[in-house]
Amino acid sequence: MSSIFRKLPDAERNTNASLYFGNIDPQCSELLMYELFVQFGPIKNINMPKDRVLKTHQGYGFVEFKHALDAKYTEDILRGVRLYGKLLKLKKLDSKPQAQQRQQIGTFINTKQELLSDKYIDVGAKLFVNNLNRLIDERFLLNTFSKFGTVIKQPEIKRDHEGNSMGFGFVTFGDFETSDLVIEKLNNTILMNSKISLDYAFKSELGENGKKVRHGDEAERKLAANAKKNNLLKLKNSGKVNKKGNCK
């Protein structure tokens, strides 16, 4: 059974035989969902992504059958079924090429982030995230790290010439309090089956001694503190910011 619960790389997944299932009650486990779906056909894989802190599923998952017809049959039969009083949502996976999916993800993130980058001052709270699972994309980074505070720029994952993740990326926050907290909470923790490491990213310019200098140094923190003291870290345009740093 352990292999059934292992998350498969996208390249190994048959999207024609796979379903997304959502609106799942916290009481539903992978085993329960497996026992439900296996009634309609042999299952190759089932996975329910876990919350990085609570280790509980996030209310959705993916099931891959051995045969595409079983996926279609399951979708038709279970339409309208409720589990623990919640309507089960089922949807066929998008079979579009990965490059096109990444382009759509980039468009989503840019749309969501462009207003923030225009309104928040970049104080240098930029983190380097290393040893990322190759399945993690920019959207996943945004959803994960934005739970701690305001991410003011599009998360960046370094990719090779074919568009494949190189296993590291960058996330920029609006203040050092948030970035410090993220390092404290997530450094050396497991994110999608990989133990990640976090540190401040290197600045683009070299230091006075000609060596690389990381963001988050004393000089940047003093500038950020002065800016905060003089209310310069608020929205550049007209508007207010609540205590959590979100736009009202």
From TrEMBL:
Pfam families: RRM_1. Keywords: RNA-binding. Residues 17-95, 125-203 form the RRM domain. The keyword RNA-binding applies. It comes from the Eukaryota. This is Hsh49 protein. SMART domains: RRM (SM00360). GO terms for cellular component: nucleolus; precatalytic spliceosome. InterPro entries: Nucleotide-bd_a/b_plait_sf, RBD_domain_sf, RRM_dom, SF3B4_spliceosome_assoc. One of its GO terms (molecular function) is RNA binding. GO terms for biological process: positive regulation of mRNA splicing, via spliceosome.
